Amino acid sequence: MSFRKPITTAGGLAFWNNIRQNSYFIMQEHKIGFPVWLYKYRILMRENRMEIANSNDISEIEHDWDYLKTHAVPRLDESIDIHKEISKVNFISIVTNVITKYII
Q1: Which residues contact 76 (CB under 8 A, 6 or more apart)?
Q2: Structurally, how many domains does the chain consist of?
């Protein structure tokens, strides 16, 4: 299986067609595929549009889809984006601490 740590999507959504979706995931097909893009199919998490699987083989991505549909438990309460993990107050306190440490 081609699962991996979720990453932000690249390549622009204008080049992708949604071919299947449910409450948690979206399967997309690249309009052109190779050689313009490295792979033809991908699966995204609907919550944050992060890519978790990709393949050039439709049967492999269908297998991944079936696995995700029955076994994956989305952890929507856990954030993987840095801007969501650090609040503005925490960010300001971190920056203030670093500045005061090196100035004083």
Answers
A1: 47
A2: 1
Give the pLDDT of residue 5.
54
Q: What is the pLDDT of residues 20-52, one digit of tens each?
A: 998 889 999 998 877 778 889 999 888 778 888
Asked if residue 31 belongs to a domain, the reply is yes
Torsion region of 43: left, alpha or beta (phi above 0 gives left; psi -120 to 50 gives alpha): beta
| pTM, entire model | 0.61
96 found inside a domain? no
Residue 89 included in any domain:
no
Question: Which pLDDT tens digit goes with each residue over 69-92?
Answer: 888 766 656 555 555 556 666 667
**Residue-range definition of the domain harbouring residue 25:** 7-76
